[in-house]
Amino acid sequence: MRSQRRRQRQQSGSGAGFSDRGGVSLSDWGHFWSIAYVSAKEVDSHLRLLERAGVVNTGKAERVLASLDQVRAMTWRLINPNT
Fold first, then answer.
1. Residue 12: is it exposed, middle or buried by C-beta count within 10 angstroms (0-12/13-18/19+)?
2. What is the CB neighbour count within 10 angstroms for residue 6?
3. At what angle do helices 26-52 and 58-79 cross, to 10 degrees?
4. 0.85 cut: is pTM over it?
5. Angle at 59 between CA 55 and CA 62, to 5 degrees
6. DSSP class of residue 1?
7. Over its length of 83 residues, how does the chain's per-residue pLDDT go in tens digits?
8. Distance (Å, rounded) from C-alpha 22 to C-alpha 27?
9. Going by C-beta distance under 8 Å and a sequence separation of 6 or more, which residues neighbour residue 56?
């Protein structure tokens, strides 16, 4: 029963569930970090649109945007370690 549940978790796992699958290659991690980078850019774009529309607080949005910039910088270095 336990192995069946583990197999089900592995088959339905999300992108963040790499550790459940074991034997993750460097290209898998590169793909994961690329998705994280693009996702941070997408959230940045959406938040800027909401900020311009006056839907979100500008000060709070700027703090989140600064954090997203740090996330993009970290993931960029993970994707491109030799640059």
1. exposed
2. 11
3. 160
4. no
5. 90
6. -
7. 666 666 666 555 555 555 555 667 767 888 999 999 999 999 999 999 999 999 999 999 999 999 999 999 999 999 998 87
8. 14
9. 47, 50
